[in-house]
């Protein structure tokens, strides 16, 4: 058995792996194989029948991937993890594995653009409806639950407005109605927030982001109760087949070892940058859970260890000024991911949430002058210097000299 500790930092390095079972290799081996050899025909029969543990085929289970799944289950406080080829593969597998035609999903007011697209596809083609509501209080949630509501799906913080949802409150309401709660925990990682410990049922991640941390993996993961995750494994994961490869699992295991250290730096840098952005005369407002003026500041302190590394900001002007500002950046990269060592910026209305109809985007608070900043691991002074010079460049051109 691998070592388990009461400390997250230790578990991020050790859980799920016992080197003595792998020839003493300090780093988990990459089992780069599609299939596994049975010692005899009877063993193959027993494994296919589910009467004997063991490996059969890497779409079903792979040793490197299993280590990643077990580590994620421990870090999220769940019983079983399932790894997928992407964050959207994880989201779609969970939704398709738990829902049927005629069901209804109650969603937080904002969701990632591709999640929105998936929800719309499910409504148009599978007759699985959905509603997006603010989820600001118990009464509003109870009023929005329909007789056929079979699942509640939440992002917190919501991408890209950073709005938070009180996870314990939603879980209380859902438990009374026997409705499972799924939380996209990508923006926080399990280091900052553990929704399962707040009563939620399944956590999903785009592992591409903070879990990887280096911008070189596409992956997803879901964690929850053993029986529920096994149901998803034997249906949506096995038969649709959006599984994670062994190499991606190995890279994620390597990334997770440094997750606590990286997240501390992301958070510390974001706190400094948020203060400076808020004071800047060319910024209308910022959306950051660590800002004392943030609408859900107290909720963030209750359910998040730290405020995270993501900041959204409204720049003075519109799309033109937003794009000019991004184009003037030198250190900060224009890219639509997050959680990487590099600081990244993107324009949600024309990038990550372009698929969302304009009217829906407006309801979500995604305006043309909204930018989303993923604060990286560079020296915060260099990040700020680049943001400041870019803002200066744009507003000098418009004869609005920033002093």
Automatic annotation (TrEMBL):
Q: Which transformation does this protein catalyse, written as a reaction?
A: L-methionine + H2O = methanethiol + 2-oxobutanoate + NH4(+); L-homocysteine + H2O = 2-oxobutanoate + hydrogen sulfide + NH4(+) + H(+)
- This protein's source sits in the domain of life called Bacteria
CDD domains (UniProt xref): CGS_like
What Gene Ontology terms for biological process does this UniProt record contain? methionine biosynthetic process; transsulfuration
Residues modified as N6-(pyridoxal phosphate)lysine are 209
**GO cellular component assignments:** cytoplasm
What name does the UniProt record give this protein?
Answer: L-methionine gamma-lyase
Question: To which species is this protein native?
Answer: Fictibacillus marinisediminis
At the highest ranks, the source species' classification is: Bacteria, Bacillati, Bacillota, Bacilli, Bacillales
Q: Gene behind this chain?
A: megL
């Amino acid at each position: 058995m691998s070592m388990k500790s009461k400390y997250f930092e230790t578990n991020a390095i050790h859980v799920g792996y016992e080197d003595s079972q792998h020839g003493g290799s300090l780093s988990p081996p990459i089992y780069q194989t599609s299939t596994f050899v049975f010692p005899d025909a009877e063993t193959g029969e027993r494994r296919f029948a589910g009467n004997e543990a063991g490996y059969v085929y890497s779409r079903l289970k792979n040793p490197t991937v299993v280590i990643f799944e077990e580590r994620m289950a421990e870090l999220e406080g769940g019983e079983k993890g399932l790894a997928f080829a992407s964050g959207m593969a994880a989201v779609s597998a969970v939704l398709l594995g738990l829902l049927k035609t005629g069901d209804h999903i109650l969603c937080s007011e904002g969701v990632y653009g591709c999640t929105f697209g998936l929800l719309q596809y499910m409504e148009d083609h599978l007759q699985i409806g959905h509603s997006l509501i603010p989820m600001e209080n118990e009464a509003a949630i109870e009023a929005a639950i329909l007789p056929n509501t079979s699942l509640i799906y939440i992002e917190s913080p919501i991408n890209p407005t950073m709005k938070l949802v009180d996870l314990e409150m939603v879980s209380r309401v859902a438990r009374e109605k026997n409705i499972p709660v799924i939380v996209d925990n990508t923006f926080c990682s399990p280091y900052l927030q553990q929704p399962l410990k707040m009563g939620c049922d399944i956590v999903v991640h785009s592992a591409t982001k903070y879990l990887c941390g280096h911008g070189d993996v596409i992956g997803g993961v879901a964690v929850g109760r053993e029986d529920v995750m096994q149901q998803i494994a034997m249906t949506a994961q096995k038969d649709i087949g959006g599984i994670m490869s062994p190499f991606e699992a190995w890279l994620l295991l390597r990334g997770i070892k440094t997750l606590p250290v990286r997240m501390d730096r992301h958070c510390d840098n974001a706190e400094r940058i948020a203060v400076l952005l808020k004071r800047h005369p060319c910024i209308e407002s910022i959306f950051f859970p660590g800002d004392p003026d943030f609408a859900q500041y107290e909720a963030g302190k209750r359910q998040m260890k730290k405020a995270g590394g993501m900041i959204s900001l409204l720049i003075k002007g519109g799309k033109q000024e937003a794009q000019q500002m991004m184009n003037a950046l030198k250190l900060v990269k224009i890219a639509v991911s997050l959680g990487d060592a590099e600081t990244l910026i993107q324009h949600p209305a024309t990038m990550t949430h372009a698929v969302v109809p304009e009217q829906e985007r407006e309801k979500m608070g995604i305006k043309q002058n909204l930018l989303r900043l993923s604060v990286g691991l560079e020296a915060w002074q260099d990040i700020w210097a680049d943001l400041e010079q870019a803002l200066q460049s744009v507003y000098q051109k418009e004869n609005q000299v920033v002093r």
